[in-house]
Design a protein that fits this description.
seven-stranded mixed β-sheet; alpha/beta; about 625 residues; 20 helices; binds 5'-O-[(S)-ethoxy(hydroxy)phosphoryl]adenosine; about 30% helix
Length: about 625
Amino acid sequence: MTTQIKSIEEYKEHYQRSIENPEKYWEEQARHFYWYEPFERVCEWNFTEPSVKWFLGGKTNITVNCIDRHLATKANQKAIIWEANMPDEEVVSLTYQELHDEVCKCANGLKEIGVQKGDRVVFYMPMVPELAIGVLACARIGAVHSVVFAGFSAQALADRVDDAQANVIICSDFNNRGMKCIPVKQVVDDAMDISCNSVKNVIVYRNTGEEINWSDDTDIDWADLMEKQEPICEPEIMDSEDLLFILYTSGSTGKPKGVVHTVGGYMVYTCYSFKNVFQYKEGDVYWCTADIGWITGHSYIVYGPLLAGATTMMYEGVPTCPDAGRFWAICEKHRVNQFYTAPTAIRALMAQGNEWPGKYDLSSLKVLGSVGEPINEEAWHWYDQYIGKGKAPIVDTWWQTETGGIMLSPLPGITDTKPTYASYPLPGIQPVLVDNEGNLKEGNNVEGLLCIKHPWPSMIRTTYGDHERCKSVYFSLFKNMYFTGDGARRDDQGRIRVIGRVDDVINVSGHRMGTAEVENAINEHPNVIESAVVGYPHDIKGQGIYAFVITQDKELDLEFKDEICAVVRKEIGPIAKPDKIQFTSGLPKTRSGKIMRRILRKIACNEMDQLGDISTLLNPDIVKELIQNRNK
Ligand code: WTA
């Protein structure tokens, strides 16, 4: 489904056409899919409200395109291969026929407990095939899935469940991660104690079978529910603009927001971008190491690959268990052809030594992908040399939860690659760089704020329950443009390098986090008066979390720091734990009382020579104290 570009000439020709007549271009791509009723219009948009609609009037079901359509030719081809936490555990694989049957059973099970089109179902699950099955089952019946990364805390889960007003939570009993076995159902129970009043049922998949608390009123055993279901479920006929899913992500202010994606456009673009960026060929085995709790897992473990009829791998565990060779052992074992991971993982494995990849046969690898954060040159070269052996092009893919699919990326073997550059836009994507006033920065060798000036099919439609927020965050700063929140530069050849966020969002190990969220969590500690969080360069994580904390009535010792970390774990989860904490008697503020984060960032980054003018501060003296007590 959808075309696959095969040469630089084709890329240029496609790009040109997609810009000159986007509607015609996407109409051609969308025609490859199965529609119950064809769409009447390709796109209707205005970025002021904003209102964006694709394939208007079209009726389809994404699971028919992911699964049923392939049954005629691929019923016995593997759709999903699952590699368990430990290497000696059995590999589970599902053919397209088996996936069809499991998804239908699960869809029927959800119907049996009363889930209907439009209802929200939250997933809080580890990386097991049942997560993919459950997500697709929702799509089958038109329920809106919202997957919450299983590393989030009970509080964070409860916030998301409440915001989505979910009727059902689907979880596992435990989560096998490396040598740890992490409670999952317990976290759901805790979230239910906090709030989650909309939830009627909790479906529990017994991943380990270990003992858990059970509430007969709400809890349903996954296996019991599935056992009695028929493997056939008529797909719900969905409008192109019906909701497919909500995925929560962090912004620069307040609570995480629910990014909304709809059926038709997301379907067309994830398939299209998957086929082109990874140059997937029949029979290839594709592996993306992301977690389905993030957008990368949604678009490039589940939907994109399945729409393209690919064999997609899922891995339950961590990169370093039982040792730092595990990723490469898996690549060898399954003869992986396309491998897609995050710079953080590459840096962590690089730090373990070059001998690890050397132990395995990585000759099957044809394309290497990177996603989630800027990849530094050193990691890029290591990836190229030790993993790809100089023969597998690296696709540094830039995109966001909001964009739904990959926006900037080399096409492997087609366009050139350059370390740290996500390089060229995919056809249909019109990136621009602007200055703070929104003036276009044209030509090459310029830097600016990255915006997109024309809609693309898989773009964000709204933020769930709060359309104003969608408007103010992405569409208000610059007229008639989608603002990404990233800064970027264009080189002399027109390649784009995304430098990083220009707002108060930090990227820790590829996990996107709002500094305000972390501050709110820290401030929950009764002895904390105020805090300010900034990012600083971290060798492995890309960015680390540096917290400046004003306290009262408390000894400033390690124990206090541990307590602060504990509240952050409780409010958000371990991924938001500060790497460095500095106690301070004050924070640099402007005369209007705003924290001058620029100064804090410079201190955290050890760039004291670049503090700039501090004389306009309300309390310039504090800077000296902050520098003196800097946490190294
Ligand atoms: C950053 C992840 C540089 C960027 C798919 C973006 C990147 C944010 C890259 C979105 C890349 C993602 N190079 N930076 N290749 N990919 N980013 O929503 O700052 O979790 O705005 O989506 O990650 O993170 P999100």
